[in-house]
Amino acid sequence: xxxxFVVVGxxxxxxxxxxxxxxxxxxxxxxxxEKGRWISYAYCGMxxxxxxxxxxxxxxxxxxxxxxxxxxxxxxxxSEVVAVDPDAKRVTxxxxxxxxxxQAYDDxxxxxxxRATTGFFDVRGVDGAFTLHNxxxxxxxxxxxxxxxxxxxxxxxxxxxxxxxxxxxxxxxAPETAAVVGGGYVGVEVAEALSERGLSVHVFHRSGxxxxxxxxxxxxxxxEALEAEGVTVHTDAxxxxxVGDDRIEAVEIGGDADGATTDRVPVDMAVVGVxxxxxxxxxxxxxxxxxxxxxxxxxxxxRTSLPDVYAAGDCATARHAVTGEPDWVPLGLTANRAGRAxxxxxxxxxxxxxxxxxxxxxxxxxxxxxxxxxxxxxxxEAAGFDPVSETVTAGSRSGYYPGAAExxxxxxxxxxxxxxxxxSIVGTDRAAIRxxxxxxxxxxxxxxxxxxxxxxxxAPPFSPVWDPILVAAKVLNGKIDx
Amino acid sequence: xxxxFVVVGxxxxxxxxxxxxxxxxxxxxxxxxEKGRWISYAYCGMxxxxxxxxxxxxxxxxxxxxxxxxxxxxxxxxSEVVAVDPDAKRVTxxxxxxxxxxQAYDDxxxxxxxRATTGFFDVRGVDGAFTLHNxxxxxxxxxxxxxxxxxxxxxxxxxxxxxxxxxxxxxxxAPETAAVVGGGYVGVEVAEALSERGLSVHVFHRSGxxxxxxxxxxxxxxxEALEAEGVTVHTDAxxxxxVGDDRIEAVEIGGDADGATTDRVPVDMAVVGVxxxxxxxxxxxxxxxxxxxxxxxxxxxxRTSLPDVYAAGDCATARHAVTGEPDWVPLGLTANRAGRAxxxxxxxxxxxxxxxxxxxxxxxxxxxxxxxxxxxxxxxEAAGFDPVSETVTAGSRSGYYPGAAExxxxxxxxxxxxxxxxxSIVGTDRAAIRxxxxxxxxxxxxxxxxxxxxxxxxAPPFSPVWDPILVAAKVLNGKIDx
Lengths: 482, 482
Prior knowledge:
Two copies of one chain form a homodimer. The first copy, chain A, has three domains: 5-36 and 78-115 and 276-346, FAD/NAD(P)-binding domain; 129-272, FAD/NAD(P)-binding domain, CATH 3.50.50; 367-481, FAD/NAD-linked reductase, C-terminal dimerisation domain (Enolase-like, domain 1, 2-Layer Sandwich), CATH 3.30.390. Chain A contains twelve helices and 25 strands.
């Protein structure tokens, strides 16, 4: 038992695990292999960097390599783990210097994250076309958006940055119009960001409303919020092609069920955000079990089906609080929390990674939206429920108090048992943070009747007597009872 | 069974009950006796009216008498119920016209509310001295604060208002300095209100920190918030006397344990907010059971110990979610919810009034504070718990996101079981509304370990990866485990 705890990937899950392990087992050895140059960066902060709300890219880094070193973690950047031998309990590592070696482990954590899918688009060869899934892309987009003579190279103030790519993008003429391909939350955030930078922005979304996992009530209000700020939203508008040889010139939209191209929108920038998928190549062929979304299936302690091999973060499943089944909802807290729990477990203190409730929040200018649990009726039915739902509009504060704003709450419950299955909230006044009340209720297996009786805070500046959540519960409960 | 449902008191609890009863039993008869002229007013809104955030007093009324009439409720204002005969099932009513009659009931709801205590101060004979516990007082304070030639009589635009009192106060010279006696939440709100109206305000609080039920972390930050806006806060400063013959001239403060007067602060206005107590006179001598705070003890359906007699709102107890025992926490949602449940029960649909968690929120300028459950160690011990607590300071948003603000979270748990007993939150960015997450966790009997694993929303504009609540749970859980 003298081999180290080996971690693959130096972002949220990997470094949380390594840090917690070192705190719990100060004499233990942990080696973190990271194939790239970047570590511990705030993926979720990239749109706000592009928007200009954040001045320096370095602000998006939680930990520097020297911080990691101070924690007693043996961090090896530029070191890709290319193979795992679970029987021999060792990994094969290739470095950017061309070295190749094997490393034995006592325990292994695979925290390889996810990568942006581009659908059938290949953005690599076209100037002005991007995906946003790493810091180099964020730096490149930020540079591309600026006028060549107005770009401040200090914005990309991290040594790891691909400076050549930044410089090349900074030198190009600034775009005036942009297509955001995909109206999920990254799409919405990027649309706001590019609009804040002065571009005329088009968002193209394949289905009928933006932010599909947030439900229609949220999608519609977010669409209104974007349009109110000058963003043009195209729903039921699948982008069929990016047009342009060297530089992007237009996007082509399929307008009907046959996919016939009916429209071409000229743009001089495109950001493709059509989804992500888990990075699982490392464990292909090892016999490991995979689960929802093709992610690595793990148990309630983050263990894979291979002995002493854990997985966490965007490459792994997590147990859904509503269904009790493994699901794949790659988000930041899940990664941090699972990593931390696995670090404790490996150090000898078995710790649950915790369920996920699918909690997510997003903003579009001043409109805040959030969702939790199961909103989609088909998904609820597939999990064996009889979904009943209601959407209400209620005030965020007492009606007489300045700033009271219309807040839409959707609740979904099981008609048989009354159990709360999911919910969404959208509005302009403290709307998103209210989702945590629903998330807590869902994790506690509460019924809508119990939610209706919750003693939520009432104070005129923050909430009316009946909080919008209580109003929604009251209406939905009436429907279930009646 | 042909006698009506009789309700005593036409505010939150009484009118909620009457309205719900009529909706559920459209053929049923309900009579509401109200001794005064006012009905259905937003007590909690009065400080914001005084502050000038609300232009018209009529905005604070939820329902007008004609609204009530349209609901099929027989509302009798100026009709005081002076006696209850629970054996004969009838009440005695005296009207302001001098009539006296008896009214039989099938079911009776006592919703007589609470009244401000003034301690040993008699504010009635002294101009410039007030308590704030009804709309006439709010109108009088608002008029008194204005310069005589600048007062807009349209602000008190409700026919029920005591116009003579308003006019008399409006005619007096405007005050320049005010004493707020009592630093509970009404005191804090009134201090802000009077400061917003341009007065130099002193708050005098008997104990060591403001907002005693919110705990020290909140009290200290709220004190800082008030001081930052020019309000002078005196803690450990019990006011011993209001000085002045016709008009208030000063307050005298007892400075040490012997109560020797050590200070006299000249003021030309004083608002006394040292607490409220339940209006229970009506049921004295009936043999009804009383409970916490001297309030009328009720069961989980709002029933008193007398047959067919219910009580709800500020005059009644409610079951505390942490202790399971009847408690007295007079707040608006509790009254509305209990009234509504009793209306349904009387109409034939037995409905739980629901537990209380002692949830309360308050603001002091831009600082928001909230509390829930049991925070006081002595109270926790008295309830059989072994309280352990922690206060952490954490960011309200991702550190790089503009507007991230320091948020203090205090959690209290039972050291034996890990069960969450109470919490408080204070900060300037969406702090108060976060209390609902803790309230929901408390009502679900969650442990701190379970709170630590909650899947709360993470989005940089609203919350860091580890929400301040999760940070606090993590630290407290470490203390309990360790």
